[in-house]
């Protein structure tokens, strides 16, 4: 059994709105993050992936449920009690422009963690910061520059350096390459995997881009409207897709290969993602699912293994796909029989 | 003759830091009913080029020609451009929310657009046409939703409204600047599908500006690859993916996560500043094939004797497989 580094147990996170409704951003999610792995979290806008990540890092208080890090419940800790644990859990954000203070020099931004945790000061801190800059591929001589003097890719390297300063155990990467051009994106992905190997890091990697998530992840959780619909080792998720939403997501992804693009059957989902203030009853995907049946509207499917010999591959669907099942010709049937 | 013929287009902007040479000698043709994809990364000049063609770059220094149906768009006066834009050349942009007026109903905005170009049509007829257009782009219950405001539509639905507007007067050319970049993949698939269907139905030519090579593979007939304001390679779609010549095209494709099992092969370094460009090939500093000749600017010349496939690179052009491996 692999070591569990972080455990999320039936976490819910709700936000009030002005109209007194409640947005259920995360609606009961349980999962485990194993030591040394990369767990991918993928889903479309508003599926709750970033909210879940922020709950994992205890940047948000959960509405109910709990988050455990190395066997200790962290979701109810006060800010002060959480502080020592912040060394172990770090976050890299999407926007390399918005997450760096434009008026501060890069050296002092990267040096912040050392200052906050009273680890190093003066020349010692400068030396540590320059080592970090070197590590992430920045020129240590640019210590006194401002964020504006760096390109997008370099700024993301600054974010990576800051997150790694205290040698964390878990790094939550929230869309770390989404704002970057592809040629630069590949540089950052390689950097993250090098660092993972060197420092034995565990990643939770959030992205809306399935091809990126596929490349970096050992296991992938697919989210839809605040819930995990499928969770599986990467090769199984792509090779033996069980949930219709996962299949639709995979088929919608444009592939940079004309032959494949011309020959495949695309599943074009109807409609839009429903509002998280008023999610559909039963299976939340039933309003758009090509193979929805009447009981899908009433019964909420649990996330569980489809086959006994694949306990790692769990899906939340009453009618999971079989391997090779053609979804492009399926039609929903919501009439009572 | 091609529907749109752009020749040696140059666009530059004077800034306090110096002159930004955003587009440096761009030529391309768009044939009727075809999709031309212009692909490139941030700052490659792909958006500036099409904005200039439609007269939307203010304060820029522009030279070159862009003949659309016999009219040079670069020298045309504002009145001519205003007549062409919307009626003959439809446009959609990345962010549909900022392209729609938040305080006017969707239907009103489409009707206004139709009546601005067609002075004879009655209000009722224009409104009927607006509802037809919304149905055409796949908006359910169009007759009811025509009186909704933009904020009542989702991102994908707003982009459909933009397409409906752009297609309202049956333009010969549709310029789509990153039309699906702000959308989720499942919604992107819907919107691309609508664009494809309309093109089949009405024979509209499309210029599709994108950074996404996946979208290029799905949509394009011809592809222009831009870097630092210039064309690096131009070819029919399959040649760009399977018989490409330029090291930049190859680098872009190799950077894609879907293309490699293990370690990615990024392009090292960053694009040059458009204020102080190198004398020779703009890609030389990041290119693994660089040699002496690259200090001179490479002309765009035919690859393998095929005039439809051109590359701006000093590497030999006769056998392209030599570099592609």
UniProtKB/TrEMBL annotation, chain A:
Record-level GO BP terms: peptide transport; transmembrane transport
Pfam families the UniProt entry points to: ABC_tran, oligo_HPY
Keywords, alphabetical: ATP-binding, Nucleotide-binding, Transport
Domain ABC transporter residue range list: 6-250
One GO MF term: ATP binding
NCBIfam families listed in its UniProt record: oligo_HPY
Protein family (similarity comment): Belongs to the ABC transporter superfamily.
PANTHER family listed in its UniProt record: D,D-DIPEPTIDE TRANSPORT ATP-BINDING PROTEIN DDPF-RELATED, TRANSPORT ATP-BINDING PROTEIN
Stated name of the protein: ATP-binding cassette domain-containing protein
Organism listed in the record: Kribbella soli
Automatic annotation (TrEMBL), chain B:
Keyword Amino-acid biosynthesis annotated: no
Biological process (GO), any one: peptide transport
Superkingdom per UniProt: Bacteria
CDD domains for this protein: ABC_NikE_OppD_transporters
Coiled coil location: none
Intracellular or extracellular location(s): Cell membrane
SMART domains assigned: AAA
Main location: membrane
Membrane topology: Peripheral membrane protein
Ranges where the ABC transporter domain occurs: 4-253
InterPro entries, per database record: AAA+_ATPase (IPR003593), ABC_Ni/Peptide_Import (IPR050388), ABC_transporter-like_ATP-bd (IPR003439), ABC_transporter-like_CS (IPR017871), Oligopep_ABC_C (IPR013563), P-loop_NTPase (IPR027417)
Listed GO CC annotations: plasma membrane
Keyword terms: ATP-binding, Cell membrane, Membrane, Nucleotide-binding, Transport
Any GO molecular function: ATP binding
Family named by the database record: Belongs to the ABC transporter superfamily.
Protein name: ABC transporter ATP-binding protein
Native source organism of the sequence: Kribbella soli
